[in-house]
Amino acid sequence: MKHQIKYTFIASAIILFFGCSNKEVVKNPAMHSLSNITMSYIRGNEYVMGTYKDKFRDKTPREVKVDNFYIDKTEVTNGAYRQYIEDTQGAVVRPAYIDNPVLGLDTLPVVGVNYSQAKAFCKFYSKRLPTEAEWEFAARGGKNFLDYPWGNEESADYMNFRRSNKTWSVDVASYPPNAYGLYDMTGNVREWVEDTYEKDFYKRACVRSPWRFESFSKM
Questions:
Q1: What residues does 64 pair with on adjacent strands?
Q2: DSSP secondary structure string, 16-42?
Q3: Cα(112)–Cα(42) distance, rounded to whole angstroms?
Q4: Would the pLDDT of 119 be above 90?
Q5: Burial of 136 (0-12, 13-18, 19+ CB in 10 A)
Q6: pTM exceeds cut of 0.85
Q7: How far is Cα of residue 14 from the mean position of the Cα atoms in its chain?
Q8: Which of 32, 43, 73, 186 is the most exposed place for a label (fewest CB within 10 A)?
Q9: Residue 39 and residue 70 in contact, taking contact as beta carbons nearer than 8 Å
């Protein structure tokens, strides 16, 4: 997480957002559903991305344009990643913690997946990771001028972070969703985005999500 959502506590963990951008044949239709049960439709708009509170002092807030998209309401679980391993007939490397008796439970978000593995997972299901701008737009839940979707103060009632007295990650959807119906956009585990870090990103004359209509989900 690169902006307001800073208090994750498993350094090697990830959540994936991935989106379908075409009508390719899907290898597992159940994991590619765009139903309102598993996904939320986010109407794109311009918003102020970034924060003056950034400790690196290189993310000065500026307006960014994001187009419409769908996104999964929950993180991708170990159970879903096991399905991916099965769908690939075991041709992919098993994440370090997926067989762990604590962190590998089906209902927990998958952790210990690197960037290349995340992209491969997305590609397999005809999807992709979101850009940083798309991710932050979804994470804010429409509350563009707050540090968190519920306000400006950290709260263990809304997220799992260093000071919430939890030893490990928790089951997906253990905390209330944001205004977009998305769970665990703050805390629990770290998240991957498509972009690589660019120090001069905010010096560009114009910033816009590079894709038109996309669909995203979380892992």
A1: 47
A2: -EE---S-PPPS-GGGG---TTTEEEE
A3: 28
A4: no
A5: buried
A6: no
A7: 8
A8: 43
A9: yes
Q: Residues of 39-72 as b/e, b for ≥16 C-beta within 10 angstroms? A: bbebebeebebbbeeeeeeebebeebebbebbbb
Helices (H), 76-188: 78-87, 115-124, 132-140
* 8 Å CB contact between 60 and 50: yes
Q: Could you tell me if residue 139 is left (phi over 0), alpha (psi between -120 and 50 degrees) or otherwise beta?
A: alpha
Strands 214-215 and 69-72: parallel
81 closest CA partner among 189, 206, 182, 8: 189
CA pair distance 81, 148, nearest whole angstrom: 29
Q: CA 46, CA 48: separation in Å to the nearest integer? A: 7
Cβ pair 217, 15 in contact under 8 A? no
- Does the structure show a pLDDT above 60 at 180? yes
Residue 53 pLDDT class (50, 70, 90 cuts)? confident
Tokens 């998209």 map to which residue?
69
Coil vs helix vs strand at 201 = helix
Amino acid 43 reads R
Closest C-alpha among 77, 200, 212 to residue 131: 212
Place of tokens 């939320």: 40
- Using DSSP's 3-state secondary structure scheme, residue 30 falls into helix
Q: Give residue 149's identity as a one-letter amino acid code.
A: P
Phi, psi of 116 (to 5 degrees): -65, -40
Q: What are phi and psi of 118, to 5 degrees?
A: -60, -45
